[in-house]
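During the reporting period the student researcher (J.K.) took over the structure-prediction task from the postdoctoral fellow and processed the backlog of single-chain submissions. One of the processed entries is reproduced below for the supervisory committee.
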Amino acid sequence: MRKDIVVLIAFLLILSTIIAGCMTISVYATVNPDTSISNYKITIDTTSMVYNLVDARLKSNFDPSLYNYDETWNGDKVTIALTAKENIQTNDPTNWSVTKTNNQIIYTDKRMMASFPSSSSNNPYSSEMMDSISLNYYLQMPGKITYSVGASSVDGNKAEWHLSGNQIGTTPITATSDLPSIPGFDGVVVVMGILGAILLVRAKN
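J.K. obtained the following structure tokens:
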């Protein structure tokens, strides 16, 4: 892509909501043990007026070889969906990363946080303006989540964030999970242990 799609969306969110109204962005990501991301999808729910402001920019900045683009209309409401065609890797080490350490895997996404203005006296956007923007983030990790920051809910290996306004600029999407054991590995260890014991007994006899 010519520009990271989430950073582009963040910019368009601020611009369009100031002019025309509300918008909700939802991100779906499944982290794999090899640090790749599958089932990656971004949806934008908004009005036709906001759609007219952002549509041309979105279509000219996403890579059709990597993402499928789809629109669903319901009266004045429209949902734009960008879905990765295959597994992807994070492409912004500073703000978006998947790392392995000490038999755990850590996912961090600060792209929206880095793009949105945080609440401060120098913030030119009012709280009412920012509150018209919402972010839903759905993350699935390879194993049980043992740590997260600001998650609205955590259930096993899944976590959700539901943020709005200035929360988006101050809450990093980050979670740590255990790496799953190799399927069947424990059973192999048990079998090998039994065989080793049998051979040891036979050797003594």
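The committee noted the following: The longest strand covers residues 37-47.
J.K. will present the remaining backlog at the next meeting.
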